[in-house]
Amino acid sequence: MTKILITSALPYVNGVKHLGNLIGSLLPADVHARFRRQIGDEVLFICATDEHGTPAELAALKAGEEVGEFCARQHATQADIYRRFGLSFDHFGRTSSPENAALTQHFYRRLDAAGLIDERELRQVWSPVDQRFLADRYVVGTCPHCAYREARGDQCDGCGALLDPDELVAPRSALSGDTALEIRPTRHLFLRQSRLVETLRTWIDQRSGWPPFVVSTARSWLTAELRDRCITRDLTWGIPVPRAGFETKVFYVWFDAPIGYIAATQEWAAAAPGRDWQRWWWQADDVRYIQFLGKDNVPFHAVSFPATLLGSGEPWKTVDVIKGFHWLTYEGGKFSTSAQRGVFTDAALEELPADLWRWWLIANAPESADTDFSVRRFVADVNKDLADVFGNLANRIISFAHAAFEGRIPEGGEPSDLELELAAELDKRIVSLRRHHEDLEFRAAAAETRAIWSAANAYLQQAAPWTAIKSDRVRAAVATRTGLNLVRLSAVLAWSIIPELSERVLSAFGGDDVVPDWPLQPCRELFDRDAGSPVKKLAPIVAKIDPDKAAHLAKRFGTA
């Protein structure tokens, strides 16, 4: 048994996430956690809402709520959506927890004692009306490049240009509208990453199994130009900085957020007796730690967070594999939370069962390049793979067993060359499928799963027990028994990707295992397993998305 620690990028708390966020880290992390549980590994799957920073304050202001109340409500909303999507977190915490505050301050003190914290003076925008320094996002004005009137002090959403607040035309406070803004000196703390370049380079050299673009991104940061990172902000919502003269400042969200993985594990351990968070994070040489991230998060997890852990001088567990993903695009453009463009997770669940979305996203995961989502492609793929192949496989043979064998797995007869050839093919395919899962190759895993379903359908088409029964009931019994066990096997192998649909199929065979075990000798089970046992009737496993529903989806999601 291997101990597997899994974390996904922390979803930000400022609103419901879209499908791009889901496939960018959360969903593949869940699929891998489920697979690892199936093969008997000890898994800890940790996540949390990322709750600090300027966007949370601005979203709360827009909603007319205190920021703490806003974050609590948004956390509950997101937790419910992820539960309905089948994400099997062992714990889903919050970076605003007392545990994260204490740990973040602990790391700061360790880094400071190691000479890796530097206090420096910066010049920043001050609002006389608000009586505070304004973070870049709190300054809005007209973009000097495209004249977009609502550009922020860090970026223009009109043309995408990166900006500094003093570049804006007619700048004003996003909080009060104050236009009498000033530039004043203020002091901030920096993590001296530049002193850790060689330590980080050696650490990265010792990693393996990272996608090439993740390795290249990490190495591109580890140059002589690696900048020290400012880890404090002039905000009111965040983790206080335990340093004289910094009473009005908090830690930068990108400093405290990754520490939230450890804090959430502490919360998990505190929730039940016998749990020990340290065996996962402290001197945990026997743990394999895998992070799932979108490509924009890679530099922080490949450089900045390891700098925090390694710089502390303490024996913290660092990541073994970073599985990075490219973007899921939307009808040729970008998903956007701020512009509400794309398919959002709450709306997706209102329209269709979670497993339909899960299947398409994993089968088209943006692993080596961006992937474009369209309603038309989604409908076509789901109808073909889930309704025509998987659903048809299950419903056809189970219905026949009820019609011909009183709803039981029939006994009698011996496998022919047809069954033995199928067994040899499936043995190879299941070995390949397991390897794809172990190697974090999600598209390939979905493709191999689909191929197994197709092989099962092809077998039933050729064996045709509904024809054989007219002249050879024993032969029909062999084909039906093999077909039913193929259905069970297909559901077990697909469980990590489409758990709800798989569990519905397995329930027909009396399966009530929380985690269906990965088959160790799968093909031996095809011919004789549970002969004589009853099989329950099933309603159609997957209903096809008809043209009217497809048109509705296109209209709702802005692609009609």
Automatic annotation (TrEMBL):
GO terms for cellular component: aminoacyl-tRNA synthetase multienzyme complex; cytosol. It is found in: Cytoplasm. SUPFAM superfamilies: Anticodon-binding domain of a subclass of class I aminoacyl-tRNA synthetases, Methionyl-tRNA synthetase (MetRS), Zn-domain, Nucleotidylyl transferase. It is an enzyme of class 6 (ligase). It catalyses: tRNA(Met) + L-methionine + ATP = L-methionyl-tRNA(Met) + AMP + diphosphate. Keywords: Aminoacyl-tRNA synthetase, ATP-binding, Cytoplasm, Ligase, Metal-binding, Nucleotide-binding, Protein biosynthesis, Zinc. CDD domains: Anticodon_Ia_Met (cd07957), MetRS_core (cd00814). The keyword Protein biosynthesis applies. Its EC number is 6.1.1.10. ATP binds at residue 337. Its main location: cytoplasm. Binds 1 zinc ion per subunit. A motif ('KMSKS' region) lies at residues 334-338. Zn(2+) binds at residues 143, 146, 156, 159. The keyword Zinc applies. Is required not only for elongation of protein synthesis but also for the initiation of all mRNA translation through initiator tRNA(fMet) aminoacylation. PANTHER family: METHIONINE--TRNA LIGASE, METHIONINE--TRNA LIGASE, CYTOPLASMIC. Belongs to the class-I aminoacyl-tRNA synthetase family. MetG type 1 subfamily. This is Methionine--tRNA ligase. The gene is metG.
